[in-house]
Specification:
By secondary structure, the chain is mainly α. The chain has 8 helices and no strands. The protein folds into 2 domains: about 55 residues; about 120 residues, no CATH class.
């Protein structure tokens, strides 16, 4: 049964597993599979309306989904794309979180990783709109950390280096102005700044 309530044992397991380093584990593949499972449980809790601050920030969850993706399995990647977009929608409806644009960005990254550049370009436009909408939303705008594009929407910054690496790997083969704007805006910031 998928949990719809949180307790310390569950939140602690999700949180600690999220910080794990697969390469330091005796069986890295097994660890990644386990973290995929705990991240899936966390996503189910998001969908059940549980406040993410209790177990793992949304930008960390979106990063976990990307970092642990099975790049060789098209069915898995297709399902992951749906999960990212549906979870983005759930967070928008909850209207109490500034980090849902990270799910849009993760979807853009995933689309590029499977060479679906047309979808990635559409997601770039959506990311620009999402980021702007969060900043304009008076119900949550007081939570915004600073004016950096996307990164400024969260004070949870311990995985910014991963997001930065994803941003550096983006390309713009269609010459799309929105994709270029996202690329330029994200690579302007360096986690060590």
């Amino acid at each position: 049964m998928i949990p719809t309530k949180i307790n310390f044992e569950l939140s602690e397991t999700i949180g600690l597993t999220g910080w794990g380093e697969p390469d330091l584990e005796s069986d890295p593949v097994r660890f990644v599979r386990y973290r995929r499972f705990t991240t899936a449980v966390a996503i189910a809790l998001v969908h059940a309306g549980i406040d993410t601050d209790i177990f793992r920030a949304p930008n960390y969850l979106a990063r976990d989904l990307l970092i642990d993706r099975d790049r060789e399995n098209p069915n898995y990647l297709s399902l992951l794309q749906k999960i990212l977009l549906v979870t983005r929608g759930v967070l928008i409806v909850q209207n109490d979180d500034t980090e849902y644009p990270f799910f849009t960005f993760a979807s853009m990254i995933l689309a590029q990783s499977i060479n679906d550049f047309a979808s990635a370009d559409q997601l770039a436009l959506q990311l620009l709109r999402d980021e702007s909408n969060v900043r304009a939303n008076q119900a949550v705008s007081f939570l915004i950390e600073d004016d950096r594009f996307l990164f400024g929407l969260s004070n949870y910054d311990q995985v910014d280096h991963d997001w930065q690496q994803f941003a550096i790997e983006l390309t713009n083969p269609n010459g799309d102005e929105n994709t270029q704007l996202v690329c330029d805006s994200l690579t302007r910031f360096r986690p060590s700044d």
